[in-house]
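The freezer alarm interrupted the setup, so I double-checked each line after restarting. Inputs confirmed:
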Amino acid sequence: MEAREVRLRKGLGRILNVFFLIRRSRRAIFGTSIIVFYILIALFAPLLTSNDPVYAQNLAANYAAPSWYRTLTFEKGLSANQLVPSQTSTGAFDTQDSISQYTLTTNNPGAVSFQYSPTVGHNAAGSLQVNVAPRTSGSIYGGINFTVESRFNYPYDGPPGRFVGTGSVLFHLSGATPSTVAALFTIDRIGNQSYRVASADSLAQQPYNLWYTPNPQIDSLDSSLQTSSIFRAASQRGILPNALVFSSMGSYSFKLVVTIADTDLSQPFSGIVYLDDISLRLYGTSYGLLGTDYVGRDLFSQLVYGARVSLLVGLLAAGIAVGVGLVVGLVAGFKAGVLDEVLMRFTDMLLVLPGLPLILVLVAILSPSLTSIITVIALLGWMGFARVIRSQVVTLKERPFVEASRAVGAGTGHLIRQHILPNVMGLTYVSLATSVPAAITLEAALSFLGLFDPFVMSWGRMLNNAESFQGFFFWWWFVPPGISIALLSLSFILVGYGIDDILNPRLRQRR
Amino acid sequence: MGLRGYIARRSAYTLVLLLFVITLNFIIFEVMPGSPIDALASTGKLHSTTARDSVIAKFGLDKDVFTRFQDYVVNMLTFQFGYSFYTAAPVSNEIVARLTDTLLLIGVSTVLSITVGVFLGVITASRRGGVFDSAAVTGSLVTFSLPTFFMGVTAILIFFYYLHWFPLAHDQPDNWTLSPPNTGTFSGLVEYIQGRAQHLFLPVMVLFLFQYGGYLLLTRATMTEALTDDYILTSRAKGLSERTVLFKHALKNASLPIVTSIALGVGFILAGALITDNNDYPAMQAIFYIIALMVIIANFAADIILGLIDPRIKYG
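Predicted 3D structure, all chains:
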C-alpha cells in the first residue's frame, strides 16, 4: 500500500515536472494552449455541433456559404434554410393546431367542409380531413375544388439552392365514379405568377387506402421537373426551377388544389379526402459557421470532428512509435552484442526505405481504416528514435552512477527503471512532441491522396473532398482544415522545442 | 582498417540493403490484391483465351513463386521493370519521361533550400535569441508544418487564380506541344528559359518553403553546439573575422549531420514527386524501387563523404 502511494506520488511529480518545464518557455506555453484548445474541441464535438460529419447530408444546398458571410459581406444573393409551413418540419398534421398554419378555401362552401382527423394519417396518425357532403339528387357537382395552401414570406434576394416539396392525398369516394379527380401542386408568387410543380389528373382509379404522393418528389434538382413544360425553356438557359420561382423576395404560397368532378347524376355521390404532409423545404445557399460541402454536409461539424481524428492518429501513432523506439533502443543499447547488431541493422534497413510510398502501399493493401493508418504510421515511425535512445543508453550505462548501482548488486530491471529511463525521459518527451505532428501530417497526406477511412471525416479527407469537388474555390472549405493541420502540428513542434531548449543545458543561451 | 576497408564494408552493407529492398518490394506486391489479368480485363483488352495466355506468359504468372522471385531480382538489378498493367507499354519509358521533369523541379528547389536554409541557419545560430532568430525559426516552423499539398493549392489559387501572376503548374506552356520555341536561336532560347522558369516558379517555391525549414533548424542546432566549443573562442581571440569564424571554422565542424540530412533529403524528396496511379503495380514497383535505390545510393555517398571529411569516422 505504502509503496504504491510512493510510486503514485512519484508519477504525479513527474507529470507536474513536465508542466513546470513547459511553463518556462514562451513557445511551449503557446503550443500547449493551442493543443488544449483542439483537445477541448475534439472532446466536446457533440456539444459544438449536432450534425454528423459523414452521414448528415442535405443540411442545406450543396456548396452553401457560411451564414455569417451573408450578413457580413453584403452578399445579398445568399439565402438561408426555410421550412414551409414554418412551425413544423414535415407538415405532418400531428396536432389539431397544425391546421391553423394553412389557408383552406373552396369554391363550394356548401358542400365542402374541413376538419381535423386524429386517426387517419400518411406516415403517422393525424391529417386534414375534407368532407364532400352527399349530393342531393339533381344538383350537380360540376367540379368542386378545394385548396390547402401555406403562405410564407421569402425574405432573401437570391433564390434558395434547391426546393423540395411533398404532400399526400387519400380519397375515400363512394357512389358514382367521378369523371375527374385531380391533385395539383403549385408554388405561387402571390399576385404574380403560379408555377405548377406536380400534378396528377386521373386519381379516380387510385384505390382506397393508398395515398397519392407525387413521384418523383417535387424537387428543383429533379430532371423531370426541369424538363416539364413550365421550366424547360428557362432550364435550358441555365435558370433552374429554384431560381425561376424565387426570383425576388416577397410573399409566396405552396399550394395543393384538389378537383373532383362528376357527370353521372343517376347515382348518389359523397366522399372524404384526407390530406397530409403538405410541406415545402427551401435549401439555403448559406448555412452554419462554415457552410456545406458537395452533398450538403456541415463543414463546421467536419472540422470539429476532424480534430478528433487528427489528435487520435497523432497521439496514438506517435505514442506507439515512441514506445517501440524506446524498447528497441533500450534493449539494443543495454544488451550489446549480437542482439544489438541485429536490431540496429534491421532499424537501418527500415530507415532507408522511402517512407511515404511504403506507407501508401501498405495502407492500400490493408484497406484504409483508422486502425490500419495508425498501425502503419506507428510501425514505420520508430526507427530514428530507437537509434537516438540506443546511443544515449550506450553512454549512460558506462556512467559511474550506473556502475556503482551495479556494483551493489542492482539487476537489469532496476538499473533501467531507476537510472536509465529517468535519464532518457527528456528525449522521449521531445521525440513524442515531434512525432505527433509527423503522424498528423502523414494521416492528412494519406487522406488527401484518397486513402481515408470511409467512416470518419478527417481534415485531410476534407481537403481531398475539396480537391475532388471544386471546393478550392471556397476558402471556408479548405483553409480551416489546412490551417488546423498546420497549427496543431506547429504547436506540438513548439512544445518539443521548448522542452528541448530547457533540457539541453548546452544549448541554453548565455546571458 | 583504412579508408578502403571502410568503403568495402559500406559497399557490402549497401548491397545487402538493396537485396532487402528488392525482397520487400516483391513480397508487398505479391500479397497485393488484383492481377494483370483483372487489370487488362477491366480495360477490355482481353477477348480470347490465346490473348489471355499470352498475357499470363508475358507477366510470368504461370511460374511458381521462387522462379518469379529469381527473375524479379535479376530484372531489378538490370533495370528491366516489365510492362504497365494498363497500357502494356514498358514501364521504364514512362519513368524516364517523369524523372527528367521531376529532377529539374526537385533539383532547383533542393539546391535553393539547402543554400538558403544552411545560410540562415548559420546566421540565426550566431544571433541566438535575437529578433531575427525568433522570426526565422518561427517562420521556418510554420512553413515546415504546413502540408505541402495545402501550400501548393493555396499558391495556385492566390498566384494563378486571383492574381494571374503565374501560369498553372504544368511543366511547360501548353502550346509548346504543337510549336516548341526554336532553342537554336538566341531569342528562342530566351523564350524557352523564360517559359520554363515561369512554369517552374510556383512548384519550386512551394517545395522550397517546405524544405528550407528543416535545413535551417538542423544547421542552427548543430551550429549552436559548435559555437560553444573552445576553438571558436580561440579563433575569435586570434582576431579572425566573424565570417571566417562562422563559415570556415564552426560550419565545417557542424557539417556532418547536415551532409547526412542533405543526402537523405535528396533521395527521399523524389518520393513525393514520383507517386502515380495506385493500381499499376509494375509501375509502382519500379518507382518504389528507384526511390529506395536513390536513398540507398545517397546514403552510401553520405557515408563516403563523411569518411572523407571526418577522420574520426572511417576507422569506426
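Quick read of the result. The mean pLDDT of chain B is 76.
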